[in-house]
Amino acid sequence: MPVVRWTSAFEIGIPDIDEDHKRILGSVQKIHDAIDGGRFDDCAELVAEFFVIARGHFEREERILEGAGYPHLKHHAARHKELLSMAEEVGEFCTGLKNRSGARECFERMVSFLISDIVEADLEFKSYLEDVGLVERPITVPK
Ligand SMILES: [Fe+2]
Ligand SMILES: [Fe+2]
Question: Which of 17, 30, 36, 43 could be bridged to 94 by S-S, CB 3.0 to 4.6 A?
Answer without folding.
Answer: 43
